[in-house]
Structures are given as structure tokens and as C-alpha cells.
Amino acid sequence: MYYMLIYKTVENYVEKRAPYRAEHLGYSNAAHARGELFMGGALADPADTAILIFRTESPSVAEEFARNDPYVKAGLIKEWSVRPWTVIIGG
Fold first, then answer.
1. What is the per-residue DSSP string for 65-83?
2. Is the pTM of this model over 0.90?
3. Which among 76, 80, 81, 78 is positioned nearest to 23, based on CA atoms?
4. What does the pLDDT look like over 26-57, one tens digit per residue?
5. Strand 49-55 vs strand 37-42: parallel, antiparallel, or unpaired?
6. For residue 90, what pLDDT is reported?
7. Beta-carbon contacts of residue 36 (< 8 Å; ≥ 6 apart)
8. DSSP 12-27
9. Which domains does the chain have, with CATH numbers?
10. Are 59 and 18 in contact (CB under 8 A)?
11. Which of 15, 25, 26, 27 is the most buried (most CB within 10 A)?
């Protein structure tokens, strides 16, 4: 099953994330290497949302990821949610 982790970012997120970016990317790449995180990235113009797609049996994997993400811990994410994503084409 696919789950979409949706982040709503703080104002000036792109500038504020710089000190935490390497740690966040390392954390994300580890989840990808384990086969949990399928893909992820930020929306642009404006950069106010990021979406990470998880392919797991339970939404708890994405929820745990969010709770421990360096960006969340640093206060760069003002809200997050996990939603099941029904894939019709691809995947």
C-alpha cells in the first residue's frame, strides 16, 4: 500500500532548512534504502509543501518517519499528515 506524508512548511523554509538539510537527506536516504520511502520532494512556487510517498503495509511507518525527521524536530514543518494513496496507474 502507498501512503503520502504531506508536510506544510514554515515561511522561508528553503532558507531555514540549510543547517538541517544534510541530516534530513541522510535520514530520508536510509528510509529509501530500507524500501520504505518510495520517493519524495518539495513543491515549488511556492515552496510551502513537501510530499513523501511510502510503500509499506502500515501508515505507522510514515508517521514514525515524520516524528523523527530532523526537519520536523527543528520546527521547519508546521503540520504534517499521512494519507493512504490509491495508485491506479503505475506503481
1. HHHH-HHHHTT-EEEEEEE
2. yes
3. 76
4. 999 999 999 999 999 999 999 999 999 999 99
5. antiparallel
6. 86
7. 54, 55, 56, 61, 65
8. THHHHTGGGHHHHHHH
9. 2-85 (3.30.70.1060)
10. no
11. 27
